[in-house]
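Example 5.3 — F-box domain-containing protein
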Amino acid sequence: MDRLPVETKLLIVELIGEVSRQALRALSQVNHQWHDVAGPGVYGTLLIRLEDDKPAHRDRVLRLLDATLILLHVKHVILLNRDTSRSITAGKDARLCRYLRQSPPEDIIVPALGTYKGDWTAIIRLVQRLTSLKRFDFLIHRHCPPELLNVLAQTHPHCRVWVFPRCSFYPAENLSRKKWALSPVLHAVQIICYENPFGLSVHTDHPDRALRDLLRQAPHLKQLSLQISPKTPGSTGQSYTKWLKSRPPESGSDASPARARLEVLSLPLITTLTGNGFQAWSRVADLGYLTAWTAGALEEGSALAAITDLQPFRALKRLTISLHPPADSLPSWPQIIQAMFDSIPPLWYLCLLGMYDSTILPTAVLDRYGLTSIELKLHRETPQYQSYESTRLAQKGQIALIFPADAIRRMAVHCPRLKTLRICVQRLRGHPVETEAYEALG
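Solution (predicted structure tokens):
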């Protein structure tokens, strides 16, 4: 095996890495040649669990400073502080690392996070020793310290930094006032809001004004996401309402040539995108640079009309929406939907959920995207770290439609390049309705 070309060895390493990290580690220990090829896969991601001023934590980080052979391979660092009320194992941490590496950025939903109030000196020294760093994730609720971001900008100017701050909507914690937002290495921000699922503080509209305010402060951001999680007490629904009343109105004067060039925008599927909300986003960001967009729930004709009229998308390849017709929908609702889809460029990936009429799928959607679609999801798996979103989606009715055999056959005609399909079929234990659907899929 030592005589194999490097390209072949890299393929072997990739396949083994998908099966077992332990097997990959063993392969890296065969000899120096295999260590050079497999080592980056073993040590490419460095996970550091943060614990407030514990000697064991400091000693663990300081020991890493002497691991010269390992630090050469590190490209991705994750600083993690999980909710200490939950049982956390090394296996769960490894799954989280793999989840962050492999998931599309617009689909990432992180678990319950904790805060860190300890000393950052050892972490800063570690960052200065890394030579191949490409990505740095702050999986903590506390906003990342500007001192560490300054060091990252000086020693790794091309590193991409991801942060996951908690948003409380109190003036003292206004995200747009935080110094870390100005860092040139800040690449992606996922803001986490909380709501009380049993009370009145449930976010029904996107609490996304805070995201737009942050984007005005940091137009260099490329990825921006909003995550809503359940938490009782401590929800942000009521504080968001008060905060919103204190903000000046958003208007057309926000538009400027220096609009942000976002590449990924992800809004929760459990909240409603309005026409005014979409126009507000088009004023603060040039949506022509978006490659992936999770729009949320489209339940109003005004939102569909705004997308159709503005036609802002030029680079969009991945789209996720939840489509729900309003209670007073007009007979022209299918035409409104088709006009919206006609205004969006051909897609590689489409995730379409909701309670729409299944007959519109081939004509309004697949006529436009069928020839370019590689992934089509007409149902969505429960996010790995949060079942709450699926529960809230189910409260609207069904998360997705159940498709009969004839609809599946029509899809097949429109999608010759499709490689991935996720779809609902009726389960009736051998009933013709079920078996015909499987035959159509076959």
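Remark. The mean pLDDT is 82.
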